[in-house]
Amino acid sequence: MASKLSLFLGNALRSSTSTSLPSIGRMVPPLKNLCTTSEADADAGSSSSSTTTVSAEDQKGSGTDLIFAKLYPAKKHTLKTDVIHFLEGCNLSTEDIKVEYNRDYNPIAMTLQFSSHSAFDAAVRAVVRKGRLYRLEKVFTVNSDQWDLMESFNGKVVLLQGLPINASMEDIDRFLNGCSITDIRTFVRPGFPDPTKSALVRFPTIHEAMNAFRIKNHGFILNNPIGMQVLQ
């Protein structure tokens, strides 16, 4: 009887041991899977880091990446800051915008300098997204050297139109009394039935120019109404 009991207990113990070992083995992940997961994470991290670096470099741009474009239509009283706000996020400053005028100082177009292809593409998307109020076209006839030669008034020059032909410098000085001025240049253009006289007045700062425009616009010189325009 005792020998049968011992035999029964031995068989039970061996059975318990053999059934528990496989479950322990299933709890341990294969070594190969662990290595694969680690390598995949490392590759993903490397790829993410590389993408971020390229994006940062593209945003920064370089001298050879400069893109020039024209923005139409250029309106008479549109400021450079208006364009910067319209194309917000395109990395533009007032130094990146120059306005082209005809001989009568009516604006023709705005020439823009973008720091990279991605900045130009962002501007195109902004124009489309905001209802195509402007037309933006890339130009290939402008390079960095030509850009430097393009005239820019930088918002510090005000055009006075409608001056009487006999208006003198003293008359213009009286009209601009209280304003800080650095230079005045008058010119006469042929007109019908009479020639027209205008003046370019330069101010030391943009603030001074805008202040003169707000206070003096539509004033009078020798009973002639004077129109003023801040040149960009």
Helix percentage:
40-55%
DSSP helix count? 7
Physical arrangement of strands within the biggest beta sheet: 2-3-1-4
What is the rounded distance between the termini?
114 Å
Task: Give the CA-based shape.
Answer: elongated
Overall mean pLDDT: 80
CATH homologous superfamily assignment of the domain at 63-149: RRM (RNA recognition motif) domain
Q: From the 3D coordinates, which CATH architecture of the domain at 63-149 would you assign?
A: 2-Layer Sandwich
Q: Based on DSSP secondary structure assignment, what is the total number of beta strands?
A: 10
Strand content: 15-25%
H-E string: HHEHEEHEHEHEEHEEE
The largest sheet is: 4 strands, antiparallel
For the record, what CATH class of the domain at 63-149 applies? Alpha Beta
Detail the poorly predicted runs.
1-10, 12-63
Instruction: Identify the quaternary structure here.
Output: single chain
Organism: Zostera marina
Keywords: Ribonucleoprotein, Ribosomal protein
GO molecular function: nucleic acid binding
InterPro entries: Nucleotide-bd_a/b_plait_sf, RBD_domain_sf
